[in-house]
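New to this. Please check this record:
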Amino acid sequence: MEGLEAVAFQMISHVGTAKSLIMEALYEAREGRYEAAEEKLKKSRIHMVEGHHAHSGLIQQEASGQKMEFSLLLMHAEDQMMSAETINDLVAEMIRMYREMRQK
């Protein structure tokens, strides 16, 4: 496995780990363990950044004139990255809601 496939799998691996950590953060917050939830979110961001770095490398290659063939695998990796971003935003808001509910 080389090139585009390797990058796509890097992206999938990192954002998949991020998504798992994001959901774990939600479960921690549901139980009132907000510090643990924040730590999980912090770790998830590290993986999201790694996924974005891999993706940015491909964009830079294409921008410099190196054409990429269509790749269903890369398309899947990008989809996973975008869904992890959306889940992150929703979970962050849900954690805030849990905190507010417990304070009342």
Observations:
- The longest helix spans residues 72-103.
